[in-house]
## 1
Amino acid sequence: MGMRFAEGAALSIPDTIVRNTYVANHEAIEVAMIATQLLGIRLV
């Protein structure tokens, strides 16, 4: 998702809203992604 939004190509209105939300919260999203990966590793 981050790679797609970084391209700068024209997007639909819902995609633009999601891109703005992603840009505003990218640090928290990345932390949540890493936490999910760690949880999965610990469960295995």
## 2
Amino acid sequence: MAERRSELGRREFLRVAGAGALAASTSILPGGAAALAAQGPSPHELPPLPYAPDALEPYYSQQTVELHHGKHHAAYVKGLNEAEAKIAEMAQSGDFGQAKATCKALAFHGSGHVLHSVFWTNMRPGGGGDPQGPLAYALSLEFRSVDAAKSLFVAATNAVEGSGWGVLAYVPETNRLVILQAEKHENLTQWGAIPLLVCDVWEHAYYLQYQNKRADWVAAFMEHLVNWDDVAARFEAARRR
């Protein structure tokens, strides 16, 4: 069941990430764009957790998981659907006066939904340790060693200014792994970067359990929660795209 839920999470991420490509491909097909426009895109949904809410105890409390997933992530899904509905309304009416605010909301809520969808499957009970296989080789090639890559990820995540994320991503354009910071959800990224491993350091992600000790949360995430199998699967999928 856990594997099935994890796969659902990955499918939702790929659906979000591939929505633009789908729209572009249908636009060149006879009648495809008209049919798609008439039907409208299906709304985004909150992906289920790939484990029970208490499965990550004691390193990630059930109360935090339920609040984080059921309230905060759900709010990003709602905001994304509302932004897309507003864009459809503007396209229908021809009034684009709210384009700036709507596109900003689309970036914020859409990025929040994508990153959270990755975040949940990036963790598992009994996680941590080190990656193996091609992912470990690629990390060593890019950052000199797996330990150096992990240390950089931790340092970057702890140093995020304000609210945001630490992100390990793959960039198809350059065939490189990169470690980035994301402020809020959408700032400081690289175009085309595909998130493989993300750690949420918004205060809502850890404050109930770790208070203001962000470094303690990040250490627990890396040492006890990271699902390297999921990260490796995302890496392989990203390289095949």
## 3
Amino acid sequence: MVWYLYNREVGNLTIDINKAKQIGKDFLKSRGYPNMKESYYLETHGVATINYAYTEDGITYYTDLIKVKVALDNGEVVGFEGNGYLMNHAERNLGQPKLTEAEARQKVLRGENIKSSGLALIPTDYGTEILCYEFVGKLSGKDFLVYINANTGVEEQVLMIINSEEGTLTM
């Protein structure tokens, strides 16, 4: 399956976002998508759209993304979009990063505000992918993500995390 959407009226909300995330994860696992980790979500009109990325050996593969929509009235899965996963998921031989996490962390401006970090495979605008260290931090009261190339030390991407009543997204 690549995509489906069931538009229906959503009744009184009885499911919170944490329960919806678990419903989505269980749905994916039951359909042969193991090792999926939720990342960001958006809640609109009583439906949570949750992004899940494949994880393996401590690496988060943002290139292998699946979106699941969960109705917050009864937990029914009402949408699925698996194009990112289906087009990109394959055996990869990424090799060991040339930089250590500590070396990459030194490349992050204001690195003292880092809350968490790990390896991630991110997509590029050119249809390729790059192994990076993902650093989650806070600067001037705002949450951010910085991606440092794990082999060259180049800052590949900086994203701001937007937390709102509707969900958590990146920009």
## 4
Amino acid sequence: MDIFDRSHLQDLLEARAQPCVSIFLPTHRAGREVQQDPIRLKNLLREAEKRLAELGIRSANDITGSAHDLVSDSYFWRHQGDGLALFLSPDLHRQYRLPASFEELVVVADHFHLKPLLPVMSSTEHFYVLGLSQKYVKLFRGGRFSVGEVQLEGVPASLADALRFDDREASLQSHGGRTTAIFHGQGLGKDDPKDDIKRYFHQIDAGLHEILRGERSPLVLAGVDYLLPLYREITEYPNVVPGGVIGSPEHVSVSQLHAEAWKLVAPQFSQRRSDAKARYLSVADTPHGSSDIKRVIRAAHQGRVESRVVAVGEHLWGKWDPQTDAIQMVDESRAGTRDLLDAAAAQAWMHGGSVFAVPPGEVPGDGKLAAVLRF
């Protein structure tokens, strides 16, 4: 499972080399369907190359070649989320394994198509689970239907591993190899056990901070009951969910972990959606509320969108020039146009606004979008 954050979105928004190929497909974690996923990708790549040829691009392989390498990568397909998103251009190749099940889609345009990422960009659509024990550390990222493991780097694998690191740092310090040590433990069993665990958790939290920098999504803790309060005491992550999944996480299946975590975060998600809708209705008839796409996209680009509710599956096609701020609406998708709902959502999220993706009938005001503006 991969992390998709604002820095990744910025890379895609700032891509200048054309054409841009966006490919989305659902993927599977287990079962016979896993064997079909690379075939689906191969077929979608062929479709992309056909569209590139229609645009007169003769060197399509320069754009799609890296994605063809994935087709035969068995390790890659054994470590999937619920959906795969690929973004390919002459100078940018990105792939993201995400907790969102996409419909199969190929878009070839002069910009990347980002609309299917709305559930990932939405602060109400995903959460994290951190499994903790003295012999186990794992981070999961998930949504309504599943969670997938996120690769942890720079994090101790166990309490013993963390204390060995402390001893090595202290030894280097005493011999002049380092002027300071990160922690000053003297090894397992020589200090108060809680102090050992807290040093271990400090190292985990430092690694987590690097991975989740800028994130505000809920974090559910999973572990035996005496460990969770210790982690809450030291963590700097801003949105740890009250309670937790109690029990030894290494002995719980991933599906059970997801089910228990979802019970904790679902009420928070539901409340956020309700609050966003109510907030819009309270300002709908004032300068702080708007359902006009032109006004909202300009406000989003200027960082003035506080929150935005948008209909999933709806489109508003047009042309938007960020340099001149000129916006032109059209009736259907054509060369040089883009989905303006897509553009407005991406800009809002990029500038720190909240994006709530809901079914069409749930947008307040019965439109395709509703935005609360900061000023």
